[in-house]
Design a protein that fits this description.
Blueprint lengths: L1 H30 L1 E5 L3 E6 L5 E6 L3 E7 L2 H5 L2 E8 L6 E8 L4 H16 L8
Antiparallel strand pairs: 1-2, 2-3, 4-5, 5-6
């Protein structure tokens, strides 16, 4: 009976730890992530207990995407994906943004401005 109780305790502790880790990651992702779009960069501030700042140069951005689930459409919420040639963050997810905002257009305009400023042109084989 003692082994059975010990096994219950260990499995309960592991379950509580897993729930805590999932909750921490969720809170960190939703509440403790801030994006600042400047003229030259997207700055990503992340963290609850430890902080991390990542930078994406706008001239490296090459594509954008907006995705909205059914639940997000009910609460006027959307996710924006930004694809870039950045080594540390080739795919940036900006989640929980207000739908119908001009964020993609703002980023697009600034990306074009930076590419023009730096003389970067895209060639495609079509």
């Amino acid at each position: 009976i003692r082994e059975h109780e010990l096994l219950k305790f260990i499995s309960g502790t592991i379950l509580v730890l897993l729930i805590f880790i999932i909750f921490y990651r969720y809170i960190s992702m939703l509440l403790c992530t801030k994006w600042i779009i400047t003229r030259e960069q997207i700055k990503i501030y992340q963290g609850v207990l430890s902080k991390r700042i990542n930078y994406i140069e706008l001239y490296r951005v090459y594509d954008y995407e907006e995705k909205q689930s059914f639940i997000q459409s009910l609460i006027n919420n959307t996710n924006i994906y930004i694809y870039s040639g950045d080594k540390s963050t080739p795919e940036l997810l900006m989640n929980g943004l207000k739908a119908n905002s001009d964020i993609i257009q703002t980023i697009r305009n600034r990306v074009e401005e930076q590419k023009k400023k730096k003389g970067i042109y895209e060639f495609t084989n079509r």
